[in-house]
Amino acid sequence: xxxxxxxxxxxxxxxxxxxxxxxxxxxxxxxxxxxxxxxxxxxxxxxxxxxxxxxxxxxxxxxxxxxxxxxxxxxxxxxxxxxxxxxxxxxxxxxxxxxxxxxxxxxxxxxxxxxxxxxxxxxxxxxxxxxxxxxxxxxxxxxxxxxxxxxxxxxxxxxxxxxxxxxxxxxxxxxxxxxxxxxxxxxxxxxxxxxxxxxxxxxxxxxxxxxxxxxxxxxxxxxxxxxxxxxxxxxxxxxxxxxxxxxxxxxxxxxxxxxxxxxxxxxxxxxxxxxxxxxxxxxxxxxxxxxxxxxxxxxxxxxxxxxxxxxxxxxxxxxxxxxxxxxxxxxxxxxxxxxxxxxxxxxxxxxxxxxxxxxxxxxxxxxxxxxxxxxxxxxxxxxxxxxxxxxxxxxxxxxxxxxxxxxxxxxxxxxxxxxxxxxxx
Length: 425
Ligand code: BJ8
Known about the structure:
The chain is of the alpha/beta class.
């Protein structure tokens, strides 16, 4: 542990003792889940390095930015339009909230029957163990689900939080409300940063984020190939890192990784045999270090080839349509793009079912695992319709409800093994 990291964490009011335990727990998990894989692309070395110094270099960059008068804006949801933050010379950071470590910390305040993602994120603040939270000038929440919505009220007592109102429907009236929310968010960011968002700056920001989306699309398209050139775990990690790395560097790294994967594909080189069962995971997002489900699936010789989730296709599938250099049109294009994310917070949300069926075909999957965080009612209820739809389409489905703990790992393994057996025969 570099001394200057300790100095930085102290300045950020990190609880060093708990933080040591958090990082101490991460190392062995990463070793077991990631570094034990064989035949990994060399391009994953960058991501291993990022995780190896997860609270170091990037946090330092954020601190440097802040020392120069810049602002850091933390978010928890892919519905928050990051382009506006970039355009005001701020840095957006998608917070992780994928660890069990901070869950008990949150349970001292929040009801236990709250989803792990909400508890984990709140626990990070309460326990002062996340330097990204500590380095943020503003946390932007949203009204996507009731648990998050009410948690943000409490979080606001510890750190400034601004909440965007996300409508529940996708009617014209709802779209207008959302458009208004995007305009209001622009004002909030301008006030926070002291910088005016111009059409030119916003155009550059749209391009910056679109480039990263295109790189992620390319990575996912490579996963359509049989044999698949990259494991699901590695692809998930690359996506997870995109939430907080510098967008330009991230695009470069993804591009280098994809160049390497192109060569693997040309050579017919895969991470698993061509006949390995191909799985699509659909549902709640998986933030670092939530690699639990992928790890189990791939331990049994199957490969995860796609994630229909916010740490998957929902994050990058649509681009913001490039428009003329006119601020009003750009803001409208941003609002439209983000309203096209098929989160279970919307009703009805048939588009998500359509997406899963389409992706299942495009990625030639043998089965779908619906991944649901315990106490997440939106995804749990949507799974009912998902089940009906996939049955109609003849696509095998396994529904899983879990949390971040390892308590159910044995049971999950048994169910997943049985599901894969069923697919194989
Ligand atoms: S756009 S999926 S990132 S809200 S799992 S906290 S819904 S109780 S995370 Fe999400 Fe945005 Fe939607 Fe995506 Fe609530 Fe459910 Fe927990 Fe959830």
